[in-house]
Specification:
The chain contains 7 helices and 2 strands. It is mainly α. α2 crosses α3.
């Protein structure tokens, strides 16, 4: 992952730690800071802002909530990064010594429904927003 981010960011370690935190379930700023071992939430916010400008991370809000920094939920926008952290990173040493079909059946297939459901949710939100933009003022998580 370093090799991809180094083209845009000179020292990507903290950014990678943030992406790992988000990929492994941290969605709130404070949780991301803790899991990334970054002492200051404001520093984490600056890193996340850079990742947002790069189009890698996005923001969500719970349904009915206004855009409020304390209520913001962060997610991985780039599917390659989501896939990498979900299936590759934690199994990096196993990949080289395992046949493709075995790797898929052991590490990817058991988590595939959960992985794909998130993408389906995002597509559904986009569809509802585009189709019923006048009706749906806000689409959020429930």
């Amino acid at each position: 992952m370093d090799f991809i981010l180094k083209h845009e960011i000179p020292k990507p370690q903290k950014y990678i730690a943030i992406l790992q935190s988000i990929a492994y379930g941290a969605t709130k700023l404070n949780d991301i800071s803790k899991k990334s071992h970054i002492k200051s939430s404001s520093s984490t916010s600056n890193y996340i802002s850079t990742l947002e400008k790069m189009g890698i991370v996005g923001q969500d809000f719970s349904f009915g909530e206004r855009k409020n920094a304390k209520k913001t939920l962060y997610y991985m926008k780039v599917q390659f990064f989501r896939f990498y952290f979900a299936f590759i990173e934690s199994n990096i040493t196993t990949i080289s010594s395992t046949e493709e079909e075995l790797f898929y059946s052991k590490f990817i297939e058991p988590k595939l429904n959960e992985y794909v459901s998130w993408g389906f949710e995002k597509m559904s939100q986009s569809f509802v927003h585009k189709k019923y933009v006048s009706v749906s003022q806000q689409i959020g998580l429930y």
